Amino acid sequence: MKLPRKKQSPLVRALAPLRDFLHTEAAGGALLVAAAITALVWANSPWSASYDNLWSSTATVEIAGHGLSLDLRHWVNDGLMAIFFLIVGLEIKREVTNGHLAGRRAAALPVAAAVGGMVVPALLYLAIAGGTEARGWGVPMATDIALAVGVLALAGSGVPATLRAFLLGLAVVDDIGAIVVIAVFYSEGVSFAWLMVAAASLALILAVRHWGVSQTSVYVVLGVTMWFALHEAGVHPTLAGVVCGLLTPVVPRQTTDLVDAEELADLTDIEHARATMEIARNSVSTVEWLEHLLHPWTSYLIVPVFALANSGIEVSTDSLRSAFESPIMWGVLVGLLVGKPLGVMLAVKLATRTDIADRPEGTTTRQQLGAGHAAGIGFTVAIFIAELAFTDETQQADAKMAILVASLASGLLAFFVLRSRRAPLDMSREVPTPAPAEGPGRLTCACDRRSSRTRSAAPAAALASAPGRRRWPRAHRGPMHRGS
Question: Which residues pair with 285 in a beta bridge?
Answer without folding.
Answer: 252
